[in-house]
């Protein structure tokens, strides 16, 4: 058996190595392969592991399709086996027939009937845990591959079809990010936490948070940071930071009972408390200049003393330059609508991230001659929480809320324009001027458009028997007096079950079989409809929900809609 001592990882001093806690234990690795006779002569297998803070590269000749290694190693650091061609050094890029594994004190067995990566490993409890950890992500990666094929089958020129598939891909990536985040929050000291973090920073969903990734990295054990894997994470974090900028619109702002008298607690500079449940923040010219070609909005809700599902939203309000803020006079665009979960203050997870990609709003935010505001509302009450949640007696704190805008640093000169139609309009059936359960809006285009895209958010509310909270209703869109499209407004709530830590009447049994127009703990979907090129001049758009039962159940749908033209 021949050993090679690799160079110390860069940046690790002798003092630093002495200070690091290593977990070197005696191990024996026994393996079997099934190389054919014509390819078995003088075949070597290489084994890389860590010992005394140094990376060791060991090799063994395969005899009678068997090999073995014996030494001491830090079993918290991932090891790897690598096949090579005769008389060559190990090169995973040239020969990907490799296997990663976690060692254990004593004997670990590797049985490979084909590729090393498909080996059966026994004798290591940590490796068993590692394999169990990977299973749900393998399923998600399979879903992403299938969606990748689906996207490639979208017809050329079908921008809306491609965008819809992109949204599905982003949803799966975000689910992966959520699961990885939850794992890392609770298991950062596990040996394979570094690999989980690399998976996190390599998943480019809209929910990816460079700040959160850096916080996880800071909590990693020092010896994990200084491994080859740790260096890969450092590089990925650096690239992630270099290509994005984050605007903290609200940072940990406390929201209070919407039914109570307005509180007097101070707020951060630049933030205005409109009410206990509404906060306003103007974007500065410097912040607007940070926004590039892409834009994502992220809302994080941390549990307070409201343990029931509530509605919230963030709206963009555009005012003429220098004119005092006035919600009624401003152009309003609802960027993201959320529903809080049933949360119990002391249970995990105690915070919920909501994200939406809003690239279409970049030019509206960056247009000249305007003042731009973000209005955040999360309405709640602690009437029940004060009685039902330990530690909430007398508290008016409903939620703690953060809002971020995250963009790349690529400047874009888009010609897209936003036209506000409806913002949080209460469609309750009382206004019958446009017909039963309908609302019609007029808009005028100053010139012919190449494309006109409608963004629509709608959610049903009303908790009485048979109320719209418990239903989902088909929406009908009429354009210029003719039916244009029918939209199914149901949503699958299963991905958001994990956030509902307070027992409730919605998440029980198989929630995936119960479709709703909104889900506690989830964002309300934004529907995207391509209206095609439209001619200069006046147009009408009507939204109808014919099957809704408004008056009998005291229900309503909150409807927001805007156009993006180009």
Polypeptide structure, described:
Helix 3 (about 160-185) packs antiparallel against helix 4 (about 195-200). This protein folds into four domains: about 1-125, Sandwich (Immunoglobulin-like); about 125-225; about 245-410, Jelly Rolls, CATH 2.60.120; about 415-565, Jelly Rolls, CATH 2.60.120. The chain has helices spanning about 15-20, 125-150, 160-185, 195-200, 210-220, 220-225, 230-245, 285-290, 360-365, 385-390; strands at about 1-5, 25-30, 45-50, 55-60, 65-75, 80-85, 100, 105-110, 120, 245-255, 270-275, 280, 295-305, 310-320, 330-340, 350-355, 370-380, 395-410, 415-425, 440-445, 450-460, 475-480, 480-485, 525-530, 535-545, 555-565. The protein is elongated and about 85 Å long. It is of the alpha+beta class. It has a five-stranded antiparallel beta sheet with strand order 1-4-3-6-7, with no helix packed on it. Strands 11-12-17-14-15 form a five-stranded antiparallel beta sheet, with no helix packed on it. The termini are far apart.
């Amino acid at each position: 058996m021949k050993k090679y001592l690799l160079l110390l990882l860069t940046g690790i001093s002798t003092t630093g190595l002495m200070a690091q806690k290593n977990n070197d234990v005696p191990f024996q690795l026994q393996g079997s392969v099934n190389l054919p006779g014509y390819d078995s002569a003088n075949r070597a297998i290489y084994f890389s592991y860590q010992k005394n803070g140094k990376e060791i590269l060991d090799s063994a000749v395969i005899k009678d399709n068997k090999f073995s290694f014996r030494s001491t190693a830090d079993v918290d650091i991932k090891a790897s086996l690598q096949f090579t061609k005769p008389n060559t050094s190990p090169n995973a890029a040239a020969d990907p027939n490799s296997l990663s594994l976690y060692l254990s004190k004593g004997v670990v067995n590797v049985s490979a009937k084909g590729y090393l990566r498909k080996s059966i490993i026994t004798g290591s409890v940590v490796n068993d845990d590692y394999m169990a950890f990977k299973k749900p992500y393998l399923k998600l990666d399979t879903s992403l591959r299938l969606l990748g094929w689906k996207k490639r089958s979208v017809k050329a020129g079908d921008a809306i079809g491609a965008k819809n598939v992109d949204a599905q891909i982003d949803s799966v990536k975000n689910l992966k990010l959520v699961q990885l985040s939850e794992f890392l929050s609770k298991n950062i000291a596990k040996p394979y936490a570094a690999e989980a973090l690399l998976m996190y920073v390599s998943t480019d969903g809209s929910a990816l948070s460079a700040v959160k990734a850096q916080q996880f990295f800071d909590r990693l054990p020092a010896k994990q940071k200084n491994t080859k894997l740790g260096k890969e994470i450092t590089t990925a974090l650096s690239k992630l930071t270099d290509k994005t900028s984050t605007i903290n619109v609200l940072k940990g702002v406390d929201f209070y009972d919407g039914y109570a008298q307005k509180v007097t607690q101070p707020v951060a500079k630049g933030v205005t408390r409109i009410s206990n449940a509404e906060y306003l923040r103007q974007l500065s010219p410097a912040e607007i200049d940070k926004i590039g070609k892409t834009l994502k909005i992220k809302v994080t809700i941390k549990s307070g003393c409201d343990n029931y599902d509530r509605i919230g939203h963030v709206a963009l309000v555009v005012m003429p330059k220098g004119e005092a803020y006035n919600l009624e006079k401003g152009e309003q665009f609802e960027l993201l609508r959320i529903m809080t979960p049933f949360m119990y203050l002391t249970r995990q997870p105690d915070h919920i991230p909501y994200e939406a990609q809003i690239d279409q709003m970049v030019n509206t935010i960056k247009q000249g001659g305007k003042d731009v505001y973000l209005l955040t509302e999360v309405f709640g009450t602690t009437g029940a929480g004060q009685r039902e949640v330990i530690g909430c007696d007398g508290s008016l704190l409903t939620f703690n809320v953060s809002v971020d805008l995250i963009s790349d640093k690529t400047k874009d000169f888009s010609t897209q324009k936003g036209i506000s139609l409806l913002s949080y309009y209460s469609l309750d059936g009382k206004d019958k001027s446009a017909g039963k359960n309908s609302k019609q809006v007029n808009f005028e285009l100053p010139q012919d458009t190449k494309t006109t895209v409608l963004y629509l958010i709608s959610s049903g509310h009303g908790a009485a028997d048979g109320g719209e909270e418990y239903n989902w209703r088909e929406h009908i869109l009429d354009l210029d007096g003719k039916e244009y499209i029918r939209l199914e407004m149901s949503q699958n709530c299963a991905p958001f079950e994990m956030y509902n830590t307070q027992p409730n009447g919605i998440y029980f049994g198989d929630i995936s079989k119960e479709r709703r127009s909104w889900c506690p703990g989830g964002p309300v979907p934004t529907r995207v409809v391509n209206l095609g090129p439209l001619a200069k001049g006046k147009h009408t758009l009507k939204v109808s929900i014919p099957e809704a039962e408004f008056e009998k159940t005291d229900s309503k749908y909150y409807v927001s809609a805007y156009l993006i033209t180009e």
